[in-house]
Every structure is written in C-alpha cells, then in structure tokens.
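User: Is it possible to get a 3D structure for a protein together with its bound compound? The compound here is EPZ. I've pasted both below.
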Amino acid sequence: MTLVGTNDKTLASPLGDVLEIRGGRPLRGQVDVKGAKNLATKAMVASLLGSTPSTLRDVPEIRDVEVVRSLLEVHGVTVSEGDEAGSLLLDPSGAESAGFEEIDAHAGSSRIPILFCGPLLHLLGQAFIPDLGGCRIGDRPIDFHLEALRNFGATVDKEPNGIRLSAPEGLHGANIELPYPSVGATEQVLLTAVRAKGVTELRNAAIEPEIMDLIGVLQKMGAIISYEPNRVIFIEGVDQLHGYDHRSLFDRNEAASWACAALATDGEIFVKGARQYEMLTFLNVFRKVGGSFDITDEGITFRRAATPLKPVMVETDVHPGFMTDWQQPLIVALTQSTGTSIVHETVYENRLGFTEALNKMGADIVVHAQGLDGEYRRVARRELEQAAVITGPTPLRGADIVVPDLRGGYAYVIAALAAEGTSRVSNVGIIRRGYEKFFDKLTALGADFDIVG
Ligand code: EPZ
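Assistant: Yes, that's possible. Here is the predicted structure of the complex:
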C-alpha cells in the first residue's frame, strides 16, 4: 500500500477518520453552507471586548469554533446555545486571567489564539499566547502582529512556549503600515485599536469580505471604523463597547470547494447560502474552466458545462484577487482540463506540496520554485514553491492518501471522488476542522464511501 500526500510520517498516524472512497460518480444534490470559519472564530474573540453579552448566528459546527469556545471559557467567558439553531450566546462578564497550562491545553492546532492579545490586554492588562498551530502551508510568522502590538504600547516577550504581553498603562492609538495585506495582522489591529486611546491609522490593510464582516461586528459593538480607497483603515478608539447580534457571512471557501467538486466529478451541486458578490473572482475562473452556474437569492448551483474542461492561468492574490484557499480544489479540476494550466501561488510559500499526491493518482503537475515573474516577491522569503503547471486531461486512479492540511485535504477527497477505483484517505480529522457536517454532505451528494477508521 503506497501512502501518498506527505513525507511527514507523524501525519501518517491517523488523527481522525479514515475514509474508503469509491470514485467515478458525479456528485449531485444540495449542501447548506453556514457561517465562514474565518469570520465566526474572530467574531467570537471580539465578544471579549464587549461589556454585555453577544449573539453570533450561523456558527459552523467545526473544530476551530470549539477551540475558540474553550479558549474563551478558560478565560471566564460563558458560552451557551443562543436563541436559534446554530447561534451562540457569549457572555464576557466573568472574564478573567487563565493559567498557561489551561490555555496551552485548549489552543489546539489553531492560529486564532494570537487574536486574543488585544482584547485580553484591554480587559486584564496582560496576556499569554501559546505557540500557534494551523495548516503547514508555510512558516506562518507573526512578526506583523507583534510589531503592531508594540506600536499600541504593549510589551511583548517571546517565551519558550509562547508570548507574554503586558500593558499596565493601557494601549494607545498607533500608525501602522503592514508590509503585506495580512488578514490576521489586520484583524489583530482592528481588535486592539477599537478600545485603544486615540486614533489608529492602518495602511496596506487586508480587505477580504471576512475583514469587512468583522468591521461590521465591531461597529455594532460601538466601534468607530472607516476605510478609504487603497487599503487604509481608520479606527477611533472608544472607552466602552457593548455586545453584538450578528449573522456570520457565508463560508466562500467551502462554497468554492463544492463548486470544484462539481467540476471535477461532472456533477451538479446547489450550494445554499452562497452569494455572488463575495465570489465574483472565483465565478469568473469557474466559467473560464468550463463550468456554469445559476445564481438565486437562496444560493448558487454549480455544474460542468463544457467537456472537456479548458486550461486557465490563475494567480492567487489578496482580495479582490483569486483567493489562495481556492487554488487547491481548482487544481484538482484542472487535471481534467485539455491543455496546460498554470496556478501561481503568491500568498504562501509552501501551498503546492499537496500536488505530489495528485501525481501519484495519475495527474501531471510540475511545481516550479520560481514564480512566473522571476525574482519579484510580495513577501520576501527564502524557499518558495510558487507555480504549478498542470497538463491534462489525465484520468485519476484511486490511491492511499494522507491528508496534509485543511484545503489540501479537501482537494484530495475531490480527487478520490473523481478517480476511477478506490482510495483510502486518512487523517480526515483535519478536514472536519473547517468543513461542517462533512460526511453528511458527501452522503447527501451521493458520494460512495465508508468510514473505515
Ligand atoms: C488567514 O490566514 C486565513 N486563516 C487563511 O485561511 C487564508 O489563507 C489567509 O488568511 C489568506 O487569506 C484564518 O483566517 C484563520 P495572512 P492568516 O496573515 O491570517 C505572511 C484556511 O484554510 N505573514 O493573510 O494567517 C504569511 O506568512 C486558512 O482557512 C507574515 O509574513 O494569513 C503569508 O505568507 C489557510 N507575517 C501571508 O503573510 C505575519 O505576521 C498572508 O498571511 C503575518 C502573515
């Protein structure tokens, strides 16, 4: 049995479920996409900033939400079921410091704990953040975050297993320019500036839809935030914020993943809750590859319109560009396009490693360390895996696969569903970190699989 997908043997030991997938069947049916993993988790952290309880709606039932819930609870926040299905009531009135052991035990493999810094410094004057987890798609530094927190007046000390911060005199407004429009660093500044004394100016900010939705949450709490053209955001600090009542925007990553599954398996999937505006760039590429879609107020139906699929050249970018999280499922579909496609990954330095497993399933993908534009780099880095050249169509055949990360893992499942023959996909627990009711949705779409471990 050949294990493909990663050379990291620790991943070969199943962290979660093992699926046996019998491929070659089109996926047809409906999936309901709930709130965005990468907004809901941040909005939960924002509840710490309020003096009264908050209600968050359309919260996805995923592990990343559970990690944030338990981190909030170890800090004394009461988290309970809200007044409708899929909602949470977050009451920060009992917020208090937490011990390192408790924090570390609950931080899990998420990157969200770094966003607790600002709210905890405002609340308690100090914070300890354990070393971060998250998908291994690059070295995922947090230098922009720490630099920003120092600009707000916090002292930041790196300790062996985390970061200790303090701000006994409180935090003041800052002038910050990000070297790169980092989503996390932008959220760090927003969650810190809203209660800092004075005005904060943030330049070269990320403006992803999830960022704008977080700004909406903070404005509901009483924050004063404005944004200007060319990525400039102004935040006027206020003394007090109250709770919010907010329905998270839909998860456009999950929606795009199911769309690519329809393309790759020649199926038809109605993604309830998907909205056109936040997926404009994805929809253009989807159409160019040979997909078609129907948009209604309730959601978007995705299907393959052209056979064979067509090749495209895509470069990932910050919003409003083609999102880096969308490239893995797209690459699986591009293995079925007639001709040569190129996907240029410009956001992360190691997000094309998952293609090795696709080649062992029969794909023809070459990854080049240089991007298409030679030496130019958005964020200066060392080793880069920058451009995947995909030549198709190549029939995929079943294989034994170990899931490497969230989006790559989902891409493997699409490949197994599109392949002829049977695949064993292990370490599927990682996928269920970010895709709610994953097995139920596969079943609803007619996928032929068993949970075997
Ligand atoms: C968020 O990660 C998302 N995660 C990612 O989704 C998403 O791919 C990414 O934004 C880009 O859209 C969450 O929201 C939890 P970044 P984040 O800071 O905030 C470099 C998924 O599958 N950088 O925008 O960590 C960094 O190394 C995940 O849901 C620094 O150099 O991404 C990367 O190359 C995967 N220093 C680039 O910036 C810093 O201090 C973009 O990272 C911070 C980032």
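The two ends are 16 Å apart (CA to CA). The mean pLDDT is 90.
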